[in-house]
Amino acid sequence: xxxxxxxxxxxxxxxxxxxxxxxxxxxxxxxxxxxxxxxxxxxxxxxxxxxxxxxxxxxxxxxxxxxxxxxxxxxxxxxxxxxxxxxxxxxxxxxxxxxxxxxxxxxxxxxxxxxxxxxxxxxxxxxxxxxxxxxxxxxxxxxxxxxxxxxxxxxxxxxxxxxxxxxxxxxxxxxxxxxxxxxxxxxxxxxxxxxxxxxxxxxxxxxxxxxxxxxxxxxxxxxxxxxxxxxxxxxxxxxxxxxxxxxxxxxxxxxxxxxxxxxxxxxxxxxxxxxxxxxxxxxxxxxxxxxxxxxxxxxxxxxxxxxxxxxxxxxxxxxxxxxxxxxxxxxxxxxxxxxxxxxxxxxxxxxxxxxxxxxxxxxxxxxxxxxxxxxxxxxxxxxxxx
Length: 386
Fold this sequence. Notes:
By secondary structure, the chain is mostly helical. It is built from 18 helices and no strands.
């Protein structure tokens, strides 16, 4: 989308607040396109291919991983941004980066590191994403991290809304480069956050049905979801169930996107922000679902939590995952000589135990599911030849 066709409250790449470390502009890409490309080429992004969304990677090749989820979020974010005359590249960049800080084994892995890091400042995957893009990626000679634009970093720091109590990494960066944490993020970042909601609600339903954790009959009882499933079955009678499920998920995404666009246009028309700064200082998010859809989504999320995220088959995997990551963390902290040399040296040069623990948490959080399992096997199986 050309700059001239962007809404007045959209972010404009040519007016970006720039990068912490100044760089010459690209001759072929906008600042936000460059951010997106750096994220795609990051090592942390490639690792998402082997990080759990709900199912551990070896449970089946067809289930979504953090990588496929991030790509689906980016596609939805880009489509919504285009419809609202926002900068598609910025929305896509934030969507692609939003899960870079996730641990192996999804939320089970995060729970394990939260418990392990409780005496050392805690652990949060959103903060870890910020650490990845500002510190942990080491690819460029002139800076650590990816040196993303202010707008991308702001979006990652507060895409879920104003931040009153920032985590240490974000607070330290904010002291260096003010991110206006007390205000809302740009419309592009708000779009990315809700695209994430649309993607996981729909695709977790798809994966849960495919895995047999619940049935289409149960989905018919849910608000919003049930209406769509019934409508699809009436439209395509006699069609095999797998095709009906795909059609229902596709239509449900469309229903949620259409509602998001209607409500957002309504709010934007009411508040009339004349600039992105006015949008940031609005007293509410201006990109949102309607109250009706938000209310209908509550029992859907409750159903998914009970029937999918807490299904006994998933519980068995997450229980194992928590033990694996906690044991890896504990042994690496107690015996840093087991770490690769560059990580060992960083632990040994740390000035406090909490700093040592943070280095170990960074290392463990950056593992893929497969590498975490292999590392655990090598360290704890006495019969395995090293």
